[in-house]
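FAQ: What does a ligand-bound record look like?

Like this one, built around thiamine diphosphate:
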Amino acid sequence: MNKKLSIELYKKMYLIRCAEKQIQKYYHEDEMKTPMHMSMGNEAIAAGVCHALTESDQIFTTYRTHSIFLAKTGDVNEFFAEMYAKETSSLKGKGGSMHLCLPKKGFMGTSAIVSAHIPVAVGCAWANKINKNRKIVVAFFGDGAVDEGVFWESLNIASLMQLPVIFVCEDNELAVHSHIKERRGYNSITEIVKKFRCQTLEIDSTDAEEIYNLTSKAIDVLRKKPEPYFMNFKYYRYLEHVGINYDFDAGYRKKDEFKKWLKRDPVSLQRIRLMKSGYVNGEIKKIEKEILNEVVFTIKNVKNAKLSSTDELHKGVFQ
Ligand SMILES: Cc1ncc(C[n+]2csc(CCOP(=O)(O)OP(=O)(O)O)c2C)c(N)n1
Ligand SMILES: [Mg+2]
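The answer part, i.e. the structure of the complex:
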């Protein structure tokens, strides 16, 4: 067991969970004027994949940004400054929760148009291949994105040109309230992707270390020989599609399902691993407290900062 790896992954996941819990605490104040697509439940995918990347590797993702942004950049200040649309945010409040962006740390951008960022990620991988800079591009998307033609067009080009891009499908089997079984005329997306010249992997795991190990191995290969990789990771979305609450009264899914997934909650699982590897409860609590303090301190400072000026609205955008 690699104790350093275990603790680093735990810290990443705990930070994500902690930041989202604070969003739940403060959202009702209506100072964060952005729709929230929460990550709760998918922390192992974000932490496992992002931990296997270097800072200069590049990520594109959907509107469900929180876990991936924090796992890739670790930038709590930028995260909350943008949620609160403060002048201290590098996006000056133009992005909000759905459009976080921090290219200097490899978080290249997102799109709320389902699947629209995937061809951009492929284009970026093409540029990297031409420039021989050995950077890896990761496109994160949901299972709903696979229902869009542009996903298949992007996969085709990446396979044809053997581009160093990882397609990560965060498969919660839901697109808003539509279950995958209502949307698909086939059984397994991974089986179809296997017909392309693309490596594939599919697992149902909430274990960040397992995801990290698999992604690291894939990346070692990709850096030596550029080729696309498709990874399908199952997870359960804990909260409503958009918003900070549970929605088991909406009728499209059952709470029993959630209870089963909760037994293998990624953050709790990693905490148990830490205990088994010799950490005592007090040591872990100390780490948790440090992370909570950082988040609480950051929110306090961000709340006190000046709102971004309306003059910023037209800066840095195509007109
Ligand atoms: C092109 C397009 N069609 C429809 C929508 C409306 N829409 C927003 S989110 C969403 C579901 C996407 O589900 P999935 O890709 O599985 O992501 P998840 O929300 O589960 O993370 C849909 C249909 C959209 N934003 N863009
Ligand atoms: Mg989905």
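Follow-up question: can I read anything off the structure? Yes, for example: The chain has one domain: 3-303.
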